[in-house]
Design a protein that fits this description.
This protein is α/β, with parallel strands linked by helices. Helix content is 51%, strand content 17%.
């Protein structure tokens, strides 16, 4: 194991990007750890997208100070956080970054302190911390790192012991959270964190970490370089080097190869041809970006060292002229938007399925975010901004969006409240029965929150794996029915219609008056009508409404009021 006593900005960048890539490669593995065997279990996807945002912010940060890179990572994770797991991961990195904000390099002690800061901040971010989750994993990892840092200045050993403790904590999660033991899985968020820490250790221990993101580094650096240099008022004629030139060379290959690659020799020649030079290489490939007046010389120079795989030349003078024109249009549009009067109060809601979205729109929702993929903090903030409203209410319609919504509240420029709707049915009921555009933000929040308890929410889908939960032995492919988020029906052979009928029977009681059926993209009007007939046979005084929701993954959604 390689001894590392000082972590530089370079190692830190590798750690963050390796973690992002490791999550990407293991997203589906994490998704399958979802407690309920439903097809939208997406912890792995949410953590992947959240970490990818953090890595992108890190790569695009111009300041190479390690503390600044850590803060950029934390900001990226926060803005890109999706799902509760993504938000908690962002809080871990928020605490991590806060502890090392003034550090140019990290010692073993600094690394341990950062992990401890991450654990502390994550626990504070959760109103009611639950053991047997990602929180347990980060706490145990940080405690182990702290113990090791008291005995050694080897950051690699600190990370090794933190990872070992994290893996043991992950293995213990079923003993701490009974539902995990019942279904035979470890905590999915905890698994994601173990993957992050494993990537950190791989980088520090000198293991070969070839990530897909390595190939994106030049593109990200070029984007950052160009963004930093965007000047809408710059005269194209003032550009000294007019051609943005990029080449990729397969080293020591091809018929033109006649010179052994030496980085300094290769770089120094290109440095004399222009500015904004970036050169990244490994044993097989070298990638170049340079602004020059002679693209041909750049291309010719590359051919001496191997075979050209890619050549790209852009005329920056033409691009600048176009950019100036676009900037002028955007400036005018921004003025128009600023002068546009928005509503006093907006309702921001999430929904998947064209029909469901149209119902929300007709009921008065101001901005509807497609929730086929859980929206990020940034998505919610943008929706608030797009509403141009003086205040806003968020209807998450999914418990997995609560924490991202709360983060948006803390970052928004206007007052925002979250009505904690866990289902589409709760969201529609809260909006239709509780919202009054003439009332204040606080009055609407109270009224809409009160409406949540007035509806029972049912959903029917197909199990994606074998499990046993709530006393039901479920096989992959079984049709399952969920009542207020709990699986209460399981029917073999993907018999969605039977599962829906059995679920409806469990939802109806003597107080029930109205049943609304939303059929999805994998169901039909005739199936919904057959379900209505089955419901009328149970209680002929019930009223029924049927809507084409078009929702994915859940062929039937039911609400009973």
């Amino acid at each position: 194991m390689e001894v590392v006593t000082t972590i530089t900005n370079v190692e830190f960048g590798k750690m963050i990007n390796a973690a992002a890539d490791a999550l990407k490669n293991n997203a589906e593995k994490i998704n399958k750890l979802n407690v309920f065997p439903v097809p939208d279990g997406d912890t792995g996807t949410n953590m992947t997208l959240s970490m990818a945002s953090g890595a992108e912010y890190e790569r695009n940060e111009d300041d190479t100070h390690l503390g600044k890179l850590a803060q950029a990572t934390a900001k990226g994770l926060l803005m890109g956080a999706r799902g509760n797991s993504g938000v908690i991961l962002s809080q871990i990195f928020r605490g991590f970054a806060a502890k090392i904000a003034d550090k140019e390099t990290l010692s073993a002690r600094d690394l341990a302190d950062a992990l401890m800061g991450g654990a502390e901040t994550a626990y504070k971010a959760v109103m009611k911390p639950t053991e047997g989750t990602i929180l347990t994993v980060i706490r145990e990892a940080a405690a182990a790192a702290n113990r090791t840092a008291k005995k050694t200045d080897d950051a690699t050993q600190v990370m090794a012991d933190a990872l070992d403790a994290a893996e043991k904590a992950l293995a213990s999660t079923p003993d701490l959270l009974p539902v995990l033991k019942e279904v035979g899985v470890v905590d999915s968020g905890g698994q994601g964190l173990v993957i992050v820490l494993s990537a950190f250790y791989a980088v520090l221990s000198g293991q070969e970490v070839k990530t897909e993101l390595d190939n994106a580094n030049l593109d990200a650096m070029v984007l950052s370089l160009h963004n930093a240099g965007v000047q809408g008022e710059l005269n194209p004629e003032d550009i000294e080097y007019g051609y943005c030139t990029e080449i990729m060379v397969d080293i020591a290959k091809g018929t033109t190869y006649d010179q052994k690659f030496d980085y300094d020799t290769f770089y120094n020649h290109l440095a004399g041809l222009g500015d904004s030079l970036l050169v990244i290489n490994d044993d097989d490939v070298v990638k170049v970006h340079v602004h020059t007046e002679d693209p041909g010389d750049v291309i010719n120079w590359g051919t001496h060292f191997g075979s050209l795989r890619k050549v790209k030349v852009d005329n920056m003078r033409d691009q600048q002229a176009e950019a100036a024109s676009v900037a002028a249009e955007q400036k005018a549009h921004a003025v128009d938007e600023e002068n546009e009067a928005g509503p006093d109060l907006a309702v921001i809601t999430t929904a998947a399925g064209k029909g469901i979205q149209e119902i929300f729109a007709s009921a008065g929702a101001t901005v509807i975010i497609d929730s086929k993929q859980a929206p990020s903090t940034q998505d919610l903030l943008q929706a608030i901004k797009d509403s141009h409203a003086a205040a806003a209410i968020i209807l998450p319609n999914d418990g997995n969006i609560f924490m991202a919504a709360e983060q948006a509240v803390s970052l928004a420029d206007v007052p925002v409240k979250v009505v904690k709707t866990k289902t589409i049915q709760q969201g529609l009921t809260a909006l239709v029965l509780g919202y009054d555009q003439l009332k204040s933000l606080d009055e609407n929040e109270a009224a809409m929150s009160a409406m949540i308890t007035e509806v029972k929410s049912g959903s029917v889908t197909t199990s994606v794996r074998d499990t046993t939960i709530n006393g039901l032995a479920i096989q992959a492919g079984d049709a399952i029915g969920l009542l207020n988020g709990e699986i209460v029906v399981a029917v073999p052979d993907a018999n969605i219609d039977q599962a829906a009928s059995e679920l409806l029977a469990k939802m109806i009681d003597e107080d029930s008056e109205l049943v609304t059926i939303y059929y999805g993209e994998d169901s039909s009007l005739s199936a919904a009508e057959a379900l209505q007939t089955a419901g009328e046979a149970l209680d002929d005084e019930l009223e029924f409404e049927i809507h084409d929701g078009g929702q994915p993954l859940y062929p039937i959604l039911l609400s009973v009021e």
